[in-house]
Amino acid sequence: MQQANPGQQQPSPQQSTGLPKVKGPEMNDRDRLNDILAMEKYMTMSYNVAVNEASNDSLYQTQMSILTELHQAQRDLFNAMHAKGWYKMEPADMQKVDKAFQQFSNYSSQFPY
User: Of 25, 33, 53, 74, which one's alpha carbon is 20 to 30 angstroms from that of 85?
Assistant: First the structure.
């Protein structure tokens, strides 16, 4: 059995296998922004329901104002994460976009108004 030299640092399992380093339980900036973005998405969904069901005009206006602010905060978070490379998206294939547009444009003829 080979004894470790106390002055020499042993390679970690990730270093010796070439696998990526495993992240610990602590949150980093990316985790925090992901958490806040998820919360913003949940809040906008909830406010959408509340706005749709508001029976008082003043309440409706207040909730619409909050909803608009939430949508802007959500967009700002997305932009910040995207700029840092933390929210990656593939560019849309324009042929697929055109096909979907045409498909859904044809549906409009089925509407009674």
Answer: 25
